[in-house]
Structure to design on (352 residues):
């Protein structure tokens, strides 16, 4: 049975009755709109609201008189969704737009509403996709959320797709710089980074004359020594002097000094590597034996320590595992990764 007082409270919010505080926020078109609420209920779910309305001194959180609060930094839709949530409404449909979800989170953080914060963070984790990962990353980075870990994983494993989205073009320069610093990524070649950065600069330069300067750290992270002289000569991102320096370093047998650019000759093209890592991440682990798990017997040991496996197989897997000191699979040499992958394919743990 539904809680009657809560139902009555929601009716008061819907009908905007007996409101003793009105919040003023801007809509998407820039016009101001207000929405009423009830101080007592708000103070029960937020210590910030309690201090604003019933504290010994009124804080400077935007209160201009006893009944009006003007909010400059959160839009109307996000704030109303926040109010409706703390009044007990189901609001998932109201947060279908990713930007509104972000506004909702910012509002929950501003007023320190723990329940709303947890709800928004969980919803972002569920909603995470190639299209919104950069937007959610910026929020996760700003507020140090666990969602950041999920964002980074998608960034690595779907790099080419992310670079081709319209959302990449509207992301902050700091986000672009971070993205380009990844040591690996599911790209076709290093030129994916070059072409994406050219698009980013072209898209933003009308509104920001210094955009090329702001993304210089990203440009300097590109592994130009894995590209060709023709590729380098045709990009608009580099000056003539920089092109000459990089092209001249391509044929060098030693590692040249091309500061401030990245001198690595390591190819960050990870598509093949990622395709192997995903099925292996739950198979090549120290505490679970995939073979025994399939047989439904005791499995709390590694497959390279399993008595049911042949000595040759155990030596192969153990040697590779110990060689990398138990680091993440993404750090394994491609040749060693292929050894492990082929083994599990032959044992029919992975379909060819």
């Amino acid at each position: 049975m539904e809680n009657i007082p809560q139902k009555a409270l929601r009716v008061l919010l819907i009908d905007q009755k007996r409101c003793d505080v009105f919040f003023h926020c801007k809509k998407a078109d820039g016009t101001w709109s207000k929405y009423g609420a009830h101080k007592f209920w708000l103070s029960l779910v937020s210590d910030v609201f309690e201090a604003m309305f019933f504290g010994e001194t009124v804080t400077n959180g935007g209160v201009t008189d006893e009944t009006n609060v003007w909010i400059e930094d959160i839009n109307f839709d996000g704030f109303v969704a926040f109010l409706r949530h703390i009044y007990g409404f189901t609001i998932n449909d109201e947060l279908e737009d990713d930007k509104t979800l972000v506004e909702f989170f910012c509002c929950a953080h501003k007023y320190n509403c723990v329940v709303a914060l947890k709800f928004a963070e969980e919803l972002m984790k569920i909603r995470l996709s190639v299209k919104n990962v950069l937007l959610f990353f910026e929020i996760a980075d700003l507020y140090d959320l666990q969602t950041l870990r999920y964002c980074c994983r998608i960034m690595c494993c779907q790099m080419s797709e992310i670079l081709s989205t319209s959302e990449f073009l509207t992301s902050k320069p700091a986000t672009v710089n971070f993205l380009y610093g990844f040591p690996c990524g599911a790209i076709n070649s290093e030129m994916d980074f070059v072409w994406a950065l050219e698009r980013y600069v072209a898209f933003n330069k009308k509104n920001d004359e210094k955009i090329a300067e702001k993304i210089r750290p990203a440009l300097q992270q590109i592994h130009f020594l894995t590209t060709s002289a023709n590729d380098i000569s045709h990009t608009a991102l580099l000056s003539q002097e920089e092109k000459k320096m990089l092209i001249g370093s391509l044929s060098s047998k030693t590692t040249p000094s091309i500061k401030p650019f990245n001198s690595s000759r390591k190819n960050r093209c990870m598509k093949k590597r990622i395709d192997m890592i995903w099925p292996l991440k739950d198979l090549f682990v120290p505490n679970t034996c995939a073979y025994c798990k399939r047989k439904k017997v005791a499995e709390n040991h590694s497959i390279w320590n399993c008595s049911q496996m042949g000595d040759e197989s155990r030596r192969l897997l153990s040697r590779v595992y110990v060689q990398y000191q138990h680091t993440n699979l993404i750090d394994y040499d491609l040749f060693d990764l292929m050894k492990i992958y082929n083994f599990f394919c032959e044992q029919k743990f992975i379909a060819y």
